[in-house]
Amino acid sequence: xRATLIPHVPExxxxxxxxxxxxxxxxxxxxxxxxxxxNPDFIAWPGDAPVGRADExxxxxxxxxxxxxxxGYREFNLSPSGQWASYRFDGYRExxxxxxxxxxxxxLDGGRDYVALEGRIELPVEPRRLGLSAVIExxxxxxxxxxxxxxxxxxxxxxxxxxxLDLP
Length: 168
Description:
Layout: E1 2-7, E2 18-26, E3 29-37, E4 52-53, E5 62-69, E6 72-78, E7 83-89, E8 97-98, E9 103-111, E10 114-122, E11 129-137, E12 143-147, E13 165-166
Parallel strand pairs: 4-7
Antiparallel strand pairs: 1-2, 1-12, 2-3, 3-10, 5-6, 5-11, 6-7, 7-8, 9-10, 11-12, 11-13
């Protein structure tokens, strides 16, 4: 399946030009491929870091998935550095704690006019709906926020109306 992310409150020109996400359920895993259709040179890429779980990845270029469950939802962050995070929430921004589910960032690939990040996330039990998003930091320090939907006046990937896709 493929979905297109939209920028929050687009200005006259928003970098990148477009972001799409290919995704496929593989049993208890969800494969994701975030594709930025544009010259990747304007993006500030996170530097080298130890691969594994880390916090505050959303402060820099990061790709995210949110999965609702019967008992709340999970947030997954995939960084181009190879770092990742998974959090469990009981309700809208309530009860945040590390989740048991893990992620694998499989790396970047690309060319002159696109770049893509692939990863796999371990799905929680009884996953329901899916939200996809991205934070893109530019080399000049600006950030743009991309998601399937923006139901509020500020970027809020946790908003329940942001989870717009049924899991395949």
